[in-house]
Amino acid sequence: MKKNILPIAVGIAALACLTSSTITQLQQQLPPAPTIKLPQGFQANIVADSLGPVRHLVVTANGNLYVKMNNVRNRKGLYYLTDNNKDGIFETKTGFGDYPGTGIKIKNGYLYSSSNSGVYRYKLNDKNEVIDTEKPELLVSGLVDKRADNAKSFVIDDSNNMYVAIGSYSDACRAPGSIVGIPGCPLRDSVGGIWKFKADKPNQTFGDGMRFATGVKNSVGIDINPVTKTVFVTQHGRSLDNKYPQYYTSQQVAQLPAEALYELKQGVDAGWPFAYYDNFQNKYVQSPEYGGDGKKSPDVKYLEPQVIIPAHFAPNDLLFYTGKMFPAKYRNGAFMAFHAQSPEMKKGYLVAFVPFKNGKPSGNWEIFADNFSGTETGSVSIQYRPTGLAQGPDGALYVADDIKGTIFKISYSAR
């Protein structure tokens, strides 16, 4: 007998009955998000609140939400949110799962969810409800988890390959008690990259995976480009600390190195920990732990970033937009959720957009949704902090905040 089926959601047919004017009226009734600044024609509304430390999220085909939680103390690891009366507010919350984590996807009739050391999946019924919440299928276990930079974000392609990010808990692969890097950095064998597993094979361990890309210090945002079908990631850069005053001023420490958006292919190397990308010199620079002086270029050629992101922005999610609600310029472009603030720009806690053409960036990143912090600079008490992105079946953009556990719905209506 099937058990623990989540509450039934309103079907797709019910959504189809809503006219565009009805949807607009419902949006106008939602609680507004007064601090959020958006381009003309866009509107942000709060559709869920006080959930706790939300990480990534996904929207089902019938408009309900699954969200992943980063802390299970007095909470569950996942929540299923439903809007049963179709007023635009997710008033029903069903929790399940006893593990924290970040990644969450729906693919091929399953809900996939990552802990900080592995990946699970739950079979869905035809209403996108988890059939058995108590018995997830364990797909991958044994991934390194030493608490620091331990999010296991992932994405699944159309060939059932699952690409899992394994961040490095070590900032620069230094020898214990030293400021010198370990020769060859053996940590790269298990962290600081993307590993490929099968999305439909249970009980895989780390050893069953294939290293797909290396030198990526910590990737929390990961998605597949809908045009090129290649894997893109956002990288959290390392910190330079204040260990090398002979090479870096305190201002440089605050503004280096760049974070980045990368396109990955089998075998690429983005440089960590041997080199980092300098967003002022616009080149890779040898890391000080490995003989660098803040100017020296490495002898090895590393993967060039597709887009340069200022230091310490903490890009925590990546989403290629394929919907039709937003204007044409957004189609197949990439949204990024910045979880922190850049000292260089004195700005942060925002959602950025990168325009794409023919599968490649056609311009630099631009601010799309700003002022989640509640201030112009984000330098005082932070109100909201973007951490997750998802696209709804109507083409709306959902943004998760991990301070209050607020979820925003950003919609567009031409005026």
From TrEMBL:
Keywords: Signal
Domain of life: Bacteria
Cited InterPro entries: 6-blade_b-propeller_TolB-like, Beta-prop_PDH, Quinoprot_gluc/sorb_DH_b-prop
Signal sequence bounds: 1-26
Family matches, as Pfam families: TrAA12 (PF22807)
Domain Pyrroloquinoline quinone-dependent pyranose dehydrogenase beta-propeller: 37-411
Listed name of the protein: Glucose/arabinose dehydrogenase
